[in-house]
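Chapter summary example.
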Amino acid sequence: MADNKKKPLILVQKPMMRVVYALIPLQLASIYFFGWRALAILVVVNIAGFLSEYAFARVYKTQVSSAVFVTNFLFAMSLPPTVPFWIAIVGIVFGVVFGKMVFGGFGRNVFNPAISGRAFIYVSFGAQMTAHGAWVDPVRGIFGGITTWQADAISSATPLPELAAGTHVPLLNLFLGNVSGSFGETSALLILIGGIYLIVKKIASYQIVLGGVLGYGVLQAVLWLGGVHGAYDPLSGVLAGSFLYVALFMATDPVSAGQTTDAGRWIFGLIFGLLTGLIRTFSVWPEGATFAILIANMFAPLINHLLREAQTRAKNRQKEQAA
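The structure predicted for these 323 residues follows.
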């Protein structure tokens, strides 16, 4: 007898929901630093992202995966506090549709959907995403943005351009998060707490994270000590901008990272870290992590294929020698 039981609308994936749980402290911090508009952006992005995947799921006759909420959270918290709502909607729709669903849905995408959407609006709407007025200083006072819709103190730049210009940015501010920046990317402390939780739960690969920090840190130290124009100390570089956020929550995406060996995870992380340092220092884009992870995603299948082939050849040689 055929099973006519109707499937739930959403396929609940416990690992994906744990990523959402790890991001909740960052979302709460974004409200404290920048006001309730941060929550409004998150709600709008979640609605648009869910509907985008739902439309394709109807065509594919599949369920909406709970991974879409991870994409929505990651994307929303990567946005500047003044981003227009319509740009946020355009970005998440692009990320879900062209970053995941056109490849066939969850588990088949080459690129991280959240970073794909961010990159699209980053290059398409540069004035709204990067120009003067796109950033605001965190709300001051003991209650922060809890009593505020949106912070209104205009900041001329995020910490990365200031560091590149030689301006001193206190490490404690970068660590705690009371600096200008995207909604959920300013507090290194909360990012580390959430990332460590995912590593302990074996949802995120520590090899990718450490490989990224090592690749970026060594290259940045060489550039900084070598007196290269625009280079700054590696510790500030790790704590500032979206590096930690991308390294812990996006680079470790098991689908777009696509690595099945420890060596592959180390190599993938190193590529991400090295590219971040190069783009930050030598390009016009002060935030290099976005493009670094997309390029690393492109090479992920090749890295995995070459390492698996090498393992197969080594096993075959061992068998021949044993025979």
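To summarize the output: The chain is about 65% helix and 0% strand.
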